[in-house]
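S1.2 Input.
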Amino acid sequence: MKTIAVIDDDVHIGDVLTEILENEGYAVIRAYSGTEAVLLLSERHPDLILLDLMLPGLSGEEVLPHIKDIPVIVLSAKVEVQDKVTLLLGGAADYITKPFNTEELLARIAVQLRGTQRQGAPTTLTVGELTLDTVSFEVTVKGQPVKLTRTEYAILKLLMMNPKLAVSKGILLERIMSDTPDCTERSLKQHISNLRKKLQEAGGTDYIETVWGIGFKLAEQKS
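S1.3 Output.
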């Protein structure tokens, strides 16, 4: 499931966009100010961003330089050609003026998401002795294949995408629940315990560290 970040301080517009996108099968995350958007994007990596310009805190123009490797569609009431040119040259992938046509917006989103697939984000994550292939869903430790359940794979992928960060239980559940509905707050601990055991059996060390009061992170591996 693709995730789209809606960055707009207008609660009504944000709610409408969320309903439209969720009806199309997208997951949606929200930010209501430029400052909140920068914080959100330091923790999450959506597949696409819908960015309003008139935001409290940092403006959309100020948020744009903080966004790397994620297509951004600017949604704005500004209609001047120069405004559009400046934003497109500044890193936006597309620009659509408010009020927007729903079908046009969905088409532009689909085009941008197809573009990211063609560009081909790295299909292999490697952190120390751990390797995860996002296409074949294969996981190896020191080159040795490890068979994981769907939920264990989703947890490990998220941790490997954020190798130096402690990921909270809430974020873990939020990020993986759409793909792994069997994982609940009650069962998360057991899934992680099973994952740790499998990785440890393959590599001879504990690759996942519990950060008390926060969540979990990849343990530092000795070089």
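S1.4 Remarks. The chain has two domains: 3-119, 124-218.
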